[in-house]
Amino acid sequence: RKEVEQDPGPFNVPEGATVAFNCTYSNSASQSFFWYRQDCRKEPKLLMSVYSSGNEDGRFTAQLNRASQYISLLIRDSKLSDSATYLCVVPWGKSTFGDGTTLTVKP
Amino acid sequence: NAGVTQTPKFQVLKTGQSMTLQCAQDMNHEYMSWYRQDPGMGLRLIHYSVGAGITDQGEVPNGYNVSRSTTEDFPLRLLSAAPSQTSVYFCASRSGAEGYTFGSGTRLTVV
Description:
The complex is a heterodimer of chains A (107) and B (111). Helix content of chain A is 0%, strand content 48%. Chain A is an all-beta fold. Chain A has no helices and ten strands. The termini of chain B are far apart.
């Protein structure tokens, strides 16, 4: 079992839709949590840090549930430009990245 | 602030050749790591370092060596290139509770 697991996807949604991704992690001692965005095999880039109280940045909301050991990313009012792969990142030990969930937003 | 710099961006090798992928960061990050990403796959950790003079193996270390003589530099050496090592290679660094900063990647083809 991987230490960080994500919804396999892919997610295909129309513009304007709301979409949510979930990620579970196995190490309860993990202290940092992040969502990254990766476009077409370019380098991953930080989208959001995830704080224990949850945090929002425009159309994006990240939440952390320590008891259940999962984090989530909610994207509201999807745009075509949101099409990408979203990586869940929980730095701990050797395996800290989920395999990513691919989102395609269609007109 | 340059962040993480990887060179070269593209490389074609013949089977059996060796080469070194360069990675440098100017953020004074303690942690540095190398990943490979094959088409349609996630990032797989090759080697990592928690500080100068300290390196350790990741998930897929075979065929690769690393060294960390300074905080800034973390080169990845391919010992004898094989077609199975055709991939995109990313170097990343981070410090403490911060997220990772990635280099722009090296696209390697072994023929």
